[in-house]
Amino acid sequence: MTTISIDRVSRWFGNVVAVNDVSMTIEPGVTGLLGPNGAGKSTLIHMMSGFLPPSTGSVTIDGVPVWKNQEAYRQIGLVPEREAMYDFLTGHEFVLANAELHGLADPGAAAQRALATVEMEYAQDRKVTTYSKGMKQRVKMASALVHDPAVLLLDEPFNGMDPRQRMHLMELLRRFGADGRTVLFSSHILEEVEQLARHIEVVVAGRHAASGDFRKIRRLMTDRPHRYLVRSSDDRALAAALIADPSTSGIELDWTENALRIQAIDFYRFTELVPRVAKEAGIRLLTVSPADESLESVFSYLVTSA
Amino acid sequence: MNLTVARLTVRGLLGRRRGLLLLAVPALLLVLSIIVRAAVGQDESTTVNVLGTLALGTLVPLLGLIAGTGAIGPEIDDGSIIYLLAKPLPRWKIIVTKLLVAIGCTVVFAAVPTYIAGVILFGNFENLALAYGVGALIAGVAYSSIFLLFGVVTRHAVVVGLMYSLLWESVVGNFVSGAKTLSVQQWALSVAKRIADPGVISSTVHLPTAIPLLIVVTLAATGFAAVRLSRLTLAGEE
Fold first, then answer.
1. How far is A257 from chain B (nearest CA, A)?
2. In the predicted model, what is the mean pLDDT of residues A28-52?
3. Is residue A201 classed as helix, strand or coil in its secondary structure?
4. Taking CB atoms and an 8 Å cutoff, what residues of chain B touch A98?
5. In which band, very low, low, confident or very high, does the pLDDT at B94 lie, cut at 50, 70 and 90?
6. What's the rounded Cα separation, in Å, for the pair A221 and A215?
7. Residue ranges of the alpha helices (H) in chain B?
8. What's the Cα-to-Cα distance from A113 to each of A99, A141, A267, rounded to whole Å?
9. Do A70 and B231 touch (CB under 8 A)?
10. CA closest to B78 among chain A residues
11. Cβ contacts (< 8 Å) between B236 and chain A: which residues?
């Protein structure tokens, strides 16, 4: 059982702060590292995998620093985001080379086992350059697993994968998590994380925004104030009817857009309320659209409420 | 030395367009030598000129540049180096292995062709062919370590290496007498001078100066490359 500890870590590049005073502990099982693009996920994974020193703070695996510690790679399996991977080799040659570089006693058998785990035996003799993105991802997985590591770090592993490949990789990661390995994967897609990880760490703009059980954080995301733009046949009457309900916390008449800007604090009740109230008052709804449903705004809310 | 790293480096070097370049440059030297021999006949000063200027002055630094930067630069550029670095393998071992591969390439594609060109031009007389062959070998070792270091420290290793070869080795080294003391080409010439019959090859640097400088530069460049590789970071992808 292996634990990754990130203790008060900051990392800056010149004037840009990529990671700002982040502390988290990654326990055995599957953990999702969630955040929008540019949030600092890759920077955190680079620090966890020993490819970037923290500017301040410490990153350790079972208490041992990772930076400039090559022995740590006996425990770490890394699946980087970048695709380049010695394209002139076949899949088998690539995984075998990784096994040899780890100094395994029987690299051939280890490579074969890893390729079987990711179900890539059928294409193992083809050059990597002929692989689809999903196949490359699986061979990268095989190379990361070849030495049976206790920690698996994956940077945006589902990027570019089709749904079937995604399902397969998720199943694989679930299995590794259930085996007691410490699996951490990054993603900017909420649904991916939801399907795979019960425990998530959310980072936004380099800061640690939330941590814990996915359902708890999902509820936080759902319960945040939602903003809608609504156009109807009688905006004033609709506004009067909606503001009477406690699910609505504010309404503004936007003259330039000729619409209502509504802030709701109870998502489910509000979505049920709008059509009901309109129907009862004989008002025709022309537009009901969320005004701030981008992932960034959801994450921003988590940061301010954290 | 790590055999897997060596195998990957050799395949990377020879498998791409770089492999064709490695073959084409020495082939050009050999073809030119045949033409010169046919046109001028067996002539000492022509041989010294061709081997000194074309082989030691152009072919060897060019091959050192292709092999030295090519042994590591492309892997750092495209990020595939991560598969070597994410292993319980000392970084100095990776550098030394890659250096040995680069040296091997300069031996096969620069030193041996230089010797053969010497034999074509002047036979085995006055030890000229052997002298320039050994000179090319020694220069190849130094160039490989210098260009390997460039491959680690800068993403523009080929440009920096070309500027070094053209500006320092060719222009400054040939026209500024003091700078000749710090020219790999002159160090190699001083070794060649000792091997060839007396008075055939001239060099401005004395052997007792050249040998320690060759050793210091090669070791320093290799050591610095290993240190820089151990601090290589992945950044700025987000």
1. 36
2. 92
3. strand
4. 83, 87
5. very high
6. 10
7. 3-15, 17-40, 44-49, 60-70, 73-78, 82-85, 91-106, 112-122, 128-153, 157-163, 173-175, 184-195, 207-230
8. 11, 12, 49
9. no
10. A84
11. 13
> A127: which DSSP letter?
B
Which carries the bigger pLDDT value, residue B172 or residue A155?
Answer: A155
- B87–A70 C-beta distance less than 8 A: yes
Which chain A residues contact residue B83 at CB under 8 A? 85-86, 97-98, 101, 143
Q: What is the pTM of this model?
A: 0.83
For residue B173, pLDDT over 80 is answered with no
Interface test with A, best of B1, B3, B4, B231 (most A CBs within 10 A): B4
Does A88 sit within 8 Å of B79, measured CB to CB? no
Beta bridge partners of A264: A226, A248
Instruction: Please report, rounded to a whole number, the percentage of residues in chain A having pLDDT higher than 70.
Output: 93
- Structure confidence at residue B195 (pLDDT): 93
What number is the average pLDDT over the span A168-172?
Answer: 89
Average pLDDT, chain A: 88
Task: Annotate A60-121 with DSSP letters as a single string.
Answer: EETTEE-TT-GGGGGTEEEE-S---S-TTSBHHHHHHHHHHHTT-SSHHHHHHHHHHHTT-G
Instruction: List the one residue out of B18, B9, B149 whose CA is nearest residue B81.
Output: B9
Contact B79/A46, CB-based, under 8 Å?
Answer: no
pLDDT digits (tens, 9 = 90+) for B63-72: 999 999 999 9
Confidence of residue A300 (pLDDT cuts 50, 70, 90): low
* Cβ-defined contact of B87 to A73 (cutoff 8 Å): yes
Chain position carrying tokens 């954080």: A217
Is B17 within 8 Å of chain A by CB? no
Q: Give A55-97 pLDDT, tens digit per residue.
A: 999 999 999 999 989 999 999 999 998 878 898 999 999 999 9
Hey, is the C-beta of B87 within 8 angstroms of any chain A C-beta? yes
Q: How confident is the model at residue B198 (pLDDT cuts 50, 70, 90)?
A: confident
Look at residues A212, A281, A202 and name the one whose alpha carbon lies nearest to residue A41. A202
Residue A241 distance to chain B (closest CA, Å) = 46
B79 and A76 within 8 Å at the Cβ level: the answer is no
Cβ separation A102–B88 shorter than 8 A:
yes
Using an 8 Å Cβ cutoff, are A36 and A296 in contact? yes
DSSP structure class, residue A8? E
Q: How far is A268 from chain B (nearest CA, A)?
A: 35
User: Position A159: which residue type?
Assistant: N
